[in-house]
Structure formats: C-alpha cells, structure tokens
Specification:
This protein has about 130 residues and is of the alpha+beta class. The protein is built from three helices and eight strands; from the N terminus they run βαβββαβαβββ. Strand 2 and strand 3 form a beta hairpin. The two termini are about 15 Å apart. The structure holds carboxymethyldethia coenzyme *A. Carboxymethyldethia coenzyme *A binds next to strand 3, helix 2 and strand 5.
C-alpha cells in the first residue's frame, strides 16, 4: 500500500535562512519553490537520494504551519508516504476506523494529491499520503 517515504516536511520561519543551511552548508540542492494556497505555505524541495526534504514557510498566520511553529517552534512537521491510489488507501483507512484529517484528497505541491492522518492515529507523527501525478 505504501511505496516509500515521499518527503519529510520541516517547518521553518524563513525559507531563505533555512536554505542557507540546507543548501549552503549541507549542499543539498533546492530544485524549486512553490506557493500552495490551499495549505497556506511556500515550499522548497530538496531531493535527497530516493526521497526529499520539503521546507515549509507559512504564508498566513492562521495556516497550519504558522500554528505549528507558534506552539512548538520550528522543526519536523510531517512525514509523507507515497501511494499509487490515494482514494483506495483512504477508503481502506476509513473502513479500519483510522482518524483522518482529510477523507478526500486535496491539491498539494507539484500537482500531487495529498491527504493527512491525525497525529493521534500514528504515534504522534503527522502523516501525509501523497500520490504523484
Ligand atoms: N506533528 C505531530 N503532532 C502535531 C502536529 C504535527 N505537525 N501538529 C499538531 N500536533 C498535535 C498537537 O500537539 C496536539 O496534541 P496534544 O492534543 O497532545 O497537545 C494535537 O496534534 C492537536 O493539535 P492542535 O494544536 O489542537 O490542533 P491544530 O489546530 O494545531 O491542528 C493539525 C493540528 C495536525 C490537525 C493541523 O495542523 C492539520 O490539519 N494539518 C494538516 C494540514 C497541514 O499540516 N498542512 C501543512 C503542510 C502542507 C504541505 O505539505 O503542503
């Protein structure tokens, strides 16, 4: 059902400052940035091996990343798991009684379809399901 870790999301106050470390010091090349209105974030993608890091800067103080940073500070925000058929996976989870934040997929960066599970369902880690186009 799950193919691999698609990406790891890291909430940051400022993308440029974070990139000075991730690109400048670690040398992981950023291949693009995208503003995702629905999630109230701008993301920067840093492919790394078979997966990637996704830096997330909030574009709105009411958005999920802004609220996360306000409560917990910058840090690991979510792990995204890649699936082939997100609707089928969501149906299976619904049938199993898993607590979902999204019962139907939403639009994510790069034309992906995404859906989140509640962190209480998965050992305190916010999990995202991602289906790539
Ligand atoms: N990781 C782990 N736990 C988290 C969390 C996170 N990122 N965010 C919140 N929590 C925990 C809180 O600590 C809290 O736990 P306790 O009850 O033990 O204190 C619980 O989840 C509920 O959190 P809350 O603060 O009451 O609720 P919020 O209003 O902050 O909402 C969440 C939290 C996860 C439901 C909300 O952020 C959400 O719907 N997220 C999904 C969308 C999203 O995160 N989008 C940004 C990324 C977009 C992208 O990748 O493109």
């Amino acid at each position: 059902m799950i193919k691999k870790v698609d990406h790891i999301g890291i909430a940051v106050n400022n993308l440029q400052t974070a990139l000075e470390f991730y690109e400048g010091i670690l040398g992981i090349k950023c291949t693009g940035q995208e503003r995702v209105e629905e999630q109230k974030v701008t993301t920067a993608f840093l492919p790394l091996g078979d997966t990637e890091l996704e830096l997330l800067e909030s574009t709105d103080p009411t958005g999920p990343v802004a609220r996360f940073i306000e409560k917990r500070g910058e840090g690991l925000h979510h792990i995204a798991l890649q699936v082939d058929n997100i609707e089928a996976v969501l149906e299976k989870m619904k049938a199993a009684g898993v607590r979902l934040l999204d019962e139907t997929p939403r639009g994510g960066a790069g034309g992906t379809k995404i859906a989140f599970l509640h962190p209480k369902a998965s050992g305190g880690v916010l999990l995202e399901l991602t289906e790539r186009p």
